[in-house]
Amino acid sequence: MTLLDLKPSTMDVDFTVPSSSLPEFEQVLKNNPAGYKVDRWADGYVFCQA
Predict the structure, then answer these.
(1) What is the value of pTM for the model shown?
(2) What distance in Å separates the CA atoms of residue 1 and residue 21, rounded to the nearest whole number?
(3) pLDDT, tens digit only, all 50 positions of the chain
C-alpha cells in the first residue's frame, strides 16, 4: 500500500508465526535492542482494526 501512496510507511517489523512457536518467538524478542518495534501475529493473522 505504501508503494501505491495509499498509506505512509511505518517504522516497525511485522512477523507472523505459527501459534505453537509464539512463546519461543516472544523469548527471542526479549533480547530485542531498544528502539526497534516488532509486531507479531499468530497463524497468518496480520491486520486488525482496534
Answers:
(1) 0.60
(2) 28
(3) 788 889 888 888 888 899 999 999 999 888 888 888 888 888 877 766 65
